[in-house]
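Homework help board

Subject: predicted structure for assignment chain

Our instructor gave us this sequence and asked us to write out the predicted structure in token form, then describe one feature. I got the tokens but I'm not sure how to describe them. Can anyone check?
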Amino acid sequence: MWMQNPENAAARLSQWAEEFSAGPANDLGRPDGSREPAYGRPLLGHAAGDDPLWARFKDVVHPEHWTPVEAFNLAFPDERAEPAQLSVVSWIFPQTAATRRDQRANREFPAERWVRSRWHGQHELVEGLGRLFLQRFQEAGLQALLPDTLPDWRTLASERYHIASKWSHRHAAFAAGLGTFGLCDGLISPAGKALRANSLVVRLKLPASPRSYSEPHEHCLFYNSDTCGQCIKRCPAGALSPAGHDKKLCAAYLEKTKVHIAAHWPDQEGKYACGLCQTGIPCESRIPPRPKSK
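My token output:
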């Protein structure tokens, strides 16, 4: 079967992702029923369950951030695994050109396309792909889990970051070779920083994706060249500075966006969104080239 060969298994995952993203789940969810893709084509990566990075994330993210084996053994306490038996599958969906264009034109509140992709598109497509992967793994007799759906998953108070969590999809993507972090903490992938990410853990050995970087901020011009900082200017909350990302200010501003969103798109009442720092910047849709030395 497909899962008996690691290369075949990886190819099958990519095939499923492409087929799913071309289907009805990839939709903005407009109330009038008009259809438009919520996201562009997905990018997938894999990380080994025994990669040393998982232990490092306990220092970088939070001491309670799970390693893959910790999450797996919580989900399957009677079928405990060893780290080397596991793989992490990470996927990212980049925002469409239309969504990035609308968002780029805004300075205070997010664009409608951005809001709808953040919620309807996230649930139906980004998270939906995870549910599809789980179904296919289960049909093949494989144990898999979505860490942020476990009962023990929660956000954590962090002295360093204000907010952390038991499992970070962006850090999983970093481990899986999909990108490095920017000044605003967003992941700068080959498709840029305007994206959504998700990940799962599976008891299956997949070929680990190569990481073309060695530093956590390698793709960010602010860190690698002491230039740019455009995301600082894009932030309406004043949550970005040369010192980094103030998540407390960011979270407070997200609460303010609820009023704007409910007033303009009543079917999205109670939802929040921002993401202005992910567009109108050099890393919006690519890994920005470093400036040439003079």
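Reply (TA_rk): Your tokens look well-formed. For the description, you could write something like this. The chain is about 35% helix and 15% strand. That's the kind of observation they're looking for.
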